Structure of HTH hxlR-type domain-containing protein:
Amino acid sequence: MARTRHRSLDCSPGCAVEATLQLIDGKWKGVILYHLLAEAPEPEGALRFNAFRRRMPNVTQRMLTNQLRELESDGLVHRTVYAEVPPRVEYRLTERGRSLEPVIRALKAWGDAHAAMAPEVAA
Amino acid sequence: MARTRHRSLDCSPGCAVEATLQLIDGKWKGVILYHLLAEAPEPEGALRFNAFRRRMPNVTQRMLTNQLRELESDGLVHRTVYAEVPPRVEYRLTERGRSLEPVIRALKAWGDAHAAMAPEVAA
DNA sequence: CATGACGGTATCCTTTTCGACACTATGGGC
DNA sequence: GCCCATAGTGTCGAAAAGGATACCGTCATG
């Protein structure tokens, strides 16, 4: 279902912007990354599958799996499976993922500052 | 064709991230904003329709119109039509649009730093 | 007269994304 | 025996996004 993005890389200089954008677009990735950056409990910040679900009640399992898998295959999060009896899977940011922090924070800051989504509401 | 985004605003705290993201996703908006921020010639930085087309040869007219209209209706760019004989239309950032500069710069910086899109290429 | 630049529209179609819903295996608690 | 939790997968279908192509009116140029 996914991974048709990353197709051309043809745009001239604003390309870098688009490239970054392509990694974090997709409806839930921003929030996932934000939660991993800001809300993960332990210092190395891991979250489990259902921890995400509790934080984002409107995401279906399928979508959550999907977005996490895409983030993983983009090298932004790492997935650790513990072969335990109640299955346990932890997600944490990779170095590459953590390096997105300024981006996420900029997005968050702007969203907070221009609180609403519609300009007329903000005005 | 557009404007079904901005639907719920239901997510908890990472919401601001998503909200910002929704304004600048869409295949070409990042590049458009980048060009307006970085490449527009005059101090107040206006670009004309075909100036965009020259900078982004792979965008169809329809898509360009579309993305510009969405940016306009999100209050990020302003569209000025000069009732002249060869029609002239200029696009420039609004205040709100200019306030996205840190975001765009963060996106650009990350994209430049982690140059390629695929992690294995970057590594 | 034909062509091109300007700034778009209109129409059609394909791809991509998203959501709903059901289903899986395992083990523990009641 | 039944239901809960864990972390998913599979299938279906609707909707949205995006691309291809053709067309519009005006004026200047060749």
About this structure: Chain A has one domain: 28-118. Chain A is about 50% helix and 10% strand. Helices of chain A lie at 15-24, 29-39, 49-55, 61-73, 95-98, 101-113, 119-122. The first strand of chain A starts at residue 46 and ends at 48.
